[in-house]
Write a structure and sequence with these properties.
The protein is mainly α and 501 residues long. The protein has one domain. It has 19 helices and four strands. It has a two-stranded antiparallel ribbon with strand order 1-3. It has a two-stranded antiparallel sheet with strand order 2-4. The longest helix has 36 residues. InterPro entries: Transmembrane_161A/B. It comes from Daphnia magna. It holds the Pfam family Tmemb_161AB.
Length: 501
């Protein structure tokens, strides 16, 4: 319980620091305003008239001095009615001006608050998590207590999913976004069917751990229900549980489809703009292929077999142990996610450059366009910068969150020393707590309440064991990586098809 008290202190301190630090320094604002991003200014009406050869409007007439404005000689001065909408040729030789992004410019952006909150909260979650990990590493008994950092990670998952839902809802509230709505529904349905097929793969090939998690949960839950003298046939069948996982996969697939398309477009544009910067180009390539590489780490014949089973040449043992391979997988998930965050400013700048690209594309078209529509075409790119930022950051946040939860809740270690080994675990250990013993009474003291809390926590740990959490969060972690790779791959195929067309 001492470790739990330390975690409560760290949590309260972090909350108080969050309120003070974010007012002066925000990592989300820093990404938008301090990384050298520039946006394109839309042309003014005067500039468009000058380029199109349209006469400028006459200035407003002023009344002469000394003229009587009262009585019957009163003269009515009316402002000339000016039509502010006019048309210009589409092939107008127009070059947009650029401006550096300042904090006052981003306050008006759509979803600015959500983007800044998600990024800042993610930073504080990482701080709380690694402080807790360091403390539990110094005092190993802390691993037996409630880990409050998991509550922070769970809230982070909720915030990320809520942000993606808010962004996706834009396509359903807009009457002109019928094609986008159809794409979201098709993407979710396809991911649901794809998940059903992937969940049928034998876990000797795809090690997501759901079968082992179901067996452990079914056994411990059945024993617990028998001790509570409850008539039950046990938990739901494996088919129903996998169907629920497939539904969750379909929902997340619908939320990821447009972020994947957007990220793939930004990557291609960023690679084109940084062709002369070799170091940045390497980062962009790593960023592009990292979801694919990470999703392969859960395929046993391609990853674990070569690293921790097969013995090469004259070696006496594999390259690493089973535990070291698990730790290496977590490190790679975090490091490659960090690389993706580092490349965020380049991707955002590639998105902002779409304003000039739209103008260059418009020059190849015939006909005329109104000044309002042309200005809107340019201004809307910068207005939706935070929407694009959420589409870029939220999938990475989900990958990191499920990686941390898989490591901690699954009893893994960072350096190959796990807290749980299924080979050494006594699977016949039965829960000893009963619900009748846990109900409070009038004579319950503080010490009795503490003992009841420990007994309830022990019963919960025996039902939802490390093996159960390994299956649940292991599958969630792998699905996030695979979904990022799948949606980005679809986006690359889409972009290559239309670029060739």
């Amino acid at each position: 319980m001492a470790v739990l008290g330390i975690q409560l202190i760290v949590t309260l301190l972090t909350i108080s620091i969050m309120q003070k630090v974010t007012q002066r320094f925000s990592f989300g604002k820093w990404i938008l305003c301090k990384t050298g991003l520039v946006y394109y200014l839309h042309p003014t009406d005067a500039e468009l008239r000058k380029l199109a050869g349209i006469p400028q409007p006459k200035p407003k007439a002023k009344p002469k001095e000394g003229e009587n404005k009262r009585g019957k000689n009163k003269r009515k001065w009316e402002e000339p009615v000016e039509d502010k909408t006019f048309t210009v040729p589409r092939n107008l030789e127009l070059q947009l001006e650029t401006a550096k992004i300042f904090p006052k410019d981003v306050l008006q952006l759509k979803f600015f608050t959500e983007f800044v909150w998600l990024v800042d909260y993610s930073v504080f979650v990482l701080v709380v998590y690694f402080i807790t990990e360091i403390y539990c590493g110094i005092y190993p008994k802390g691993n037996q207590e409630v880990n409050l950092s998991m509550l922070w990670c769970l809230l982070l998952v909720g915030f990320a999913l809520k942000s993606l839902c808010s962004v996706t809802s834009l396509y359903f509230w807009n009457n002109e976004a019928a094609a986008e709505r159809s794409l979201v529904l098709v993407g979710g349905s396809f991911c649901f069917v794809l998940a059903l097929g992937l969940l049928l793969i034998d876990e000797s090939n795809l090690e997501i751990g759901l079968d082992a998690a179901y067996s452990a949960f079914n056994q411990s839950a059945s024993v617990f229900l028998e001790q509570q003298t409850m008539d039950s046939e046990g938990p739901a069948s494996k088919l129903i549980l996998k169907l629920c996982f497939a539904v969750w996969c379909g929902i997340t697939g619908a939320l990821f489809i447009f972020p994947g398309l957007r990220v793939s477009r930004m990557h291609l544009d960023a690679l084109r703009y940084c062709s002369e910067r070799s170091v940045l180009k390497i980062f962009m390539y790593i960023n592009l292929v990292s979801p694919f590489l990470l999703s392969l780490l859960w395929i046993r014949p391609l990853a674990r077999h070569y690293f921790s089973v097969r013995v090469f040449g004259n070696m006496e043992a594999p390259l690493m142990s089973e535990q070291s391979f698990d730790s290496m997988r977590f490190w790679l998930c975090l490091v490659l996610s960090l690389v993706r965050i580092i490349s965020a400013p380049s991707c955002f700048q590639a998105y902002l450059n779409l304003a000039q690209e739209k103008i260059e594309t418009m020059k190849k078209e015939a006909g005329r366009i109104s000044n309002v529509e042309l200005q809107r075409k340019v201004a809307i790119i910068f207005y939706y910068l935070c929407v694009v930022g959420l589409q870029f950051v939220a999938p990475i946040v989900l990958c990191v969150s499920f990686t941390l939860m898989n490591k901690t809740m699954g009893g893994y270690g960072w350096f190959g020393q796990h807290f749980y080994n299924p080979d050494e675990c006594n699977s016949q250990q039965e829960p000893t707590a009963t619900l009748s013993n846990l109900l409070p009474t009038d004579k319950t003291t503080l010490g009795d309440a503490r003992e009841q809390w420990l007994v309830a926590l022990g019963a919960f740990r025996q039902i939802f064991s490390y093996e159960v959490f390994r299956g649940v969060f292991g599958f969630a972690n792998w699905w996030m990586q695979f979904l990022s790779f799948f949606t980005i791959g679809c986006g690359l195929a889409y972009q290559s098809y239309f670029s060739e067309a």
